[in-house]
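Quick start: what a row looks like.
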Amino acid sequence: MNKSLLVVLLLGLNVASFAADEQSQTSKAALRAQAAADVLDEIQGAPDKGIPQEVLGSAECVAVVPSLLKGGFIVGGRFGRGLASCRTPKGWSAPAFFAVKGGSVGFQIGGQAVDLVMLIMNNDGMQHLLSSRFSLGADASVAAGPVGRHAEGNTDWKMRAQVLTYSRARGIFAGVSLEGAVINQDKESTRDFYGRMVPFKTSLKGEVDPPAAATTFLTALAKWAQAASK
């Protein structure tokens, strides 16, 4: 075979392989956004077992980590990856991707997958989130969130926590503390999703348009947040 033709064929194979890898990685981030939408729909669609309307309606930002802790849990171990969106004058922002590491949820999970939801409740908490790296409990106060359709008679969440956290495992949805967990930007997923590096502040402040793959997550978030504010 002509050497020039061989070089062209090899280059073509490399480009095709690279494109396939990029598509696969992008699909992982897109699937995570879809899974986060499913988590919100399932949790808020459960009668009297979701996040109280008053709480969700007051949240400045919402973060979801779907299928957390697959393959076993050890205190101090890695949790997983998720995405967050914040309120902006134009609606909910394009998602920012992050990783959660460390911390303790206070019980052993074994091989059970866990869904995690975090609500950033005020401007101070949002500023920590915008920094793209912070520690729950050290930088931002964190507490287990109340559960139920309404949070009547329970005002602690209004006064003492910048971040409220929830987990769902084995069909049980409950508030859970994530004291000591560290959150930082997931740069790999960010590049995969947007095709370039997008800073936390740029996406969470609404300074970048969300890709089409974010539509399902943002639609679910807008639906439940609007229902909560009524």
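That is the whole record. The radius of gyration is 19 Å. The chain is about 40% helix and 25% strand.
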